[in-house]
Amino acid sequence: MLNDLIDKRKTILAESEQHKERRNELNALASQYARERNELNNQTRQFVEEAQQHKELRDKSNKDVSTLKDQRNELNEKANVLFEELEEYKKEHGNIKKGQVKDIQRQIEFLEFKQQTEAMSADKERDLVEKIKQMKQQVREQEAELEQNKEIRGKLQDARDLRKAASDLHIKVTESADLAQQHHDLMVECYRKADKSREEADARHRAFVEAQESADAEHKSFIECQKELRDYDKVISGVRTKTKKVKTVKENKSVRMEAEKIFNSFKSGEKLTTDDLLLLQRSKLI
């Protein structure tokens, strides 16, 4: 019986060590998942902050576009007024051309706006730029004709200056619009990265919870094994104590019988050895 108990205790002890080892492995794995989750969450926050910065820069560039457009349009309107006066002068002097400066200039403005706002192929954009160039050349030719008249030369120069300033502002409008689009694209990319890292962080968190729960289950099994070991230790200790007592009783009985035999021999007149005397003392017969 005692050997069976000892064998069963060894089995429970081995099982306990397995649960302990597996628990420690799962706790280490859970810690790793937690670290990775936290790193991904920090990364997500960084992406969101970066996206917010690009959003602010995009909004600022869009605001600049709006302001510059208003300024450009105001200069173009002033230039148009002067060109209208020049057209009236041409009408009065009977020198009217089919493509009037005002109309051509408005077409140029329309085409420039189309170039800025519409997506087109590189070939189509080159054709559009070439057409704008040709129309600007027409404007210069008509303006050159008007310059021959000293009375309107100053007004023509003012109109040119206004148009040049408007053209410069148009370049700034295009640059600000491009910059706004760049920041918008970067913002979208940052949000995309943030979504991806957030999904990965959520996956790590789920893995962390699963590993932690498994570790807790292994720890619970380990504790149960420890309890069983303590119970086996008590039982084994009790069996050993009982066995020892039984053995002692048997030994005492045997010693008593041997001592009584020696004592009877002593009474019959036989001599006793030192060992015989010690045995009689142990059995309390003398």
From TrEMBL:
Keywords, in A-Z order: Coiled coil
InterPro entries noted in UniProt: DUF7121
Keyword Coiled coil on entry: yes
Keyword Coiled coil: yes
Coiled-coil region(s): 2-92, 122-159
Protein name: Phosphoserine phosphatase
Organism encoding this protein: Methanocalculus chunghsingensis
